[in-house]
Every structure is written in C-alpha cells, then in structure tokens.
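Input/output pair, single chain:
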Amino acid sequence: MNSFNMAHNSTNRIQTFNKARVELHLHLDGAIKPETILYFSKKRGISLPANTVEGLMCCIGYDEPLNLTQFLNIFNYYMPAIAGDREAVKRIAYELVQMKAKEGVIYFEARYSPHYLANSNVIPIAWNQKPGDLTPDEVVHLVNQGFKEGEKDFKIKARSILCCMRHMPEWSAEVVRLCKKYRNEGVVGIDLAGDESYCDVYSGHGKAYEEAFKSGIHRTVHAGEVGPPSVVKEAVDVLKAERIGHGYHTIEDLCLYKRLLKLNIHFETCPWSSYLTGACDPDFTRHPIIRFREDKANYSLNTDDPLIFKSTLDKDYHIVSKYMGFTEEEFMRLNINAASSCFLPDKEKEELLSMLYEAYGMVQSTVF
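Output:
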C-alpha cells in the first residue's frame, strides 16, 4: 500500500495536534477557495477547465505524485481568474485568514509574487490576457488590507512575504523596494521561489537580497526542495537566508547540514507537499524530517499550497504523527521554533511565544 493510501485510510485513527499552531510556509496563490476562483472566472468572463468545484478540483487538485515542473504549471489553469482584479486579490487574502483560523493557526506568514497577482509583464502572454492597470505596489496594499480585515474578524495574526521569482530577476529590485515600503504595514520578509534549475542568483536576485540584508529585511529562500545541497549553500552564503523553504536535500551534504544546525537556520518543511511534488522518497518513514527531528533541528510544519494539494494543516500533522512517530511534545517544540524563527519584530515575537506557552500550559523557560 503506498504512502498516500495509508495516510488517507487512517485519518480517523490518530489524534493530530490541535493546540495553537504557527505556519510559516504558505503560498497565497496556492491557498485560494475554489468557489472564489469560480466566482471571479464567471464575473470576468474567463474560461476555466471546469465550472463546478468538483470539476475544478479534478483539474487542479492532486493526491498522487507529480514532478515540480508539472506542479508549477497548475497555477496557469486558475490564476487568470484572480490575477489583475482588485476585488479578487483582497478577497483571497481575507479568506486565507478565515481558513487558517479554522485550522487552529494563531499566526501565519503567507508569501506571494506581487507581479503574478498584478498580471504583469510576460504573464498576460502566457495566459492569453491583456495586462490591466493593477500594479505590484497596489497588490501589496490590497493583500495587507485583506489580512488586516481578516485579523479583526477572526482574531489571529497574518503577515506576508514577497516573492522574487528565479526566472524573472528583473522583478527583484521592485520586490525588495516593496518590502521596504510596506515593512510596517504587514510585509515581514522576502523570498526567492520558482524552479531551482534557474541558478543565476548573482544578478538581479543577488543585488535584491544584498539590499534586503543591508535594510534589515528578513530573508527566506526556496532551496533544496528538489535541488542539490549546493542551492541551499548558495541561499545561506550568497543570499544570507535566515530560513530555507523545504531544504530536504541539505542532509546529503553532512558538512553543510551540521553548519546550518549550528547557525540555527530554520527549515520550512511541508511533508504532504514533498510527497506530491516528488521532492523526497515517497516512503514517509524515510523522510528527511525524521532526521531534522532526531537532530533537534530548527524546523516547522506547513501546507505550502493547500488548494492544489487538497489539504489542510491537519493532514501534515497526521502524516508525521503516523509515519514519523511525532509526539505532542515534538509538535509543541516545532511550533515554538516556528514562532522563534518568524519574521515579526522582537516585541510581537515575544507576545506570540507567550501565547504559545500559555496555550501549551508551559513556562516560557522550558527547554526541549
């Protein structure tokens, strides 16, 4: 029986951790309600592969493995209904806060590319759409508004990370500029996402990350998901990343891995995502997260793109509980590590940690 079927068939047999949670690796454009996609496709007259929730999810939702390139192409099926529309951009941000509150998350950081959501430059050509007048700057403002309204209504905290895209280094200077402009209005960091085979980070991306570092902008990088340890090394040494998105293949370079443990670099792991994108061995009992747990690494559990993966955070917690032997103590440890490694200002970070310790019935000096 494969890992998916085993996890799927045993959902009701294991109690997942249902106390306060923190999520750090979540893509806004990969966490949209299918009903919202259908609403805006109809409103804007944009064709989709299907016109019902069930039909749409058959086209864009996956529960069997595919490669990372196939996964990245899925966004082209539904993002034309959302990108470039002011109402849609604000609404998906607001609805994400609602969804995460239902999952017991008290703080999350969602990442997105302002240029993709603005439907800019090369995107209209790929999607056969004309570019609109929505700018990346306005996208950030709208997402911030959606998050703020969601925070007020659902009583949790939401912040955003702006993504540079590996294949579009010409966007990166504007991304870091927007990080600086909105750093006090909801934006807490910068990310580099996309196909890891695009390795030229020394041009636009390198300059953007250098500026982010000099300006005190927090930094994370997708690296070592399917790429080799050298991409992780580049992220830390060249781009000065404080966190690594995924990072599973780091353990293949023992010297690098040990160095990152000493540096307390945070790994934003996504178990179910790693299975579906083919990032790791499909046998969960051989997953690199087990090594992270054994070595007391600094890491968190995250959903990545729950729309496409047809998942919630419960699925990821269930997987590591059943196949990796995670206990409630480990769940508390990894959430405290997530809060400690989040990109909030120090005062807000301490408040978040206090909330977790209180939720867990622990004193804040507890050492795992």
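Residues 164 and 175 are 6 Å apart (CA to CA). The radius of gyration is 19 Å.
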